[in-house]
Design a protein that fits this description.
By secondary structure, this protein is an all-alpha fold. 90% of the residues lie in helices and 0% in strands. The longest helix has 47 residues, at 5-51. The chain crosses the membrane at residues 20-38. Keywords: Membrane, Transmembrane, Transmembrane helix.
């Protein structure tokens, strides 16, 4: 029973690394997307207010 423990621990560490990588990448994309959206919103708002 204990012989499988180190292997599973190492495996979970690799999974955790991948999970962190994926989530870190996802959050970076999310932040970039939010900033892009915000800029677009500001441009749209100024465009709309300029037209009105």
């Amino acid at each position: 029973m204990w012989s499988g423990q180190p292997h599973s621990c190492n495996n979970s560490r690799e999974e955790t690394k991948q999970w962190l990588l994926v989530h870190g990448f996802g959050s970076v994309i999310l932040v970039l997307f939010a900033q892009f959206n915000l800029k677009h919103h500001l441009i749209l708002d100024s465009f709309i207010s300029a037209r009105v």
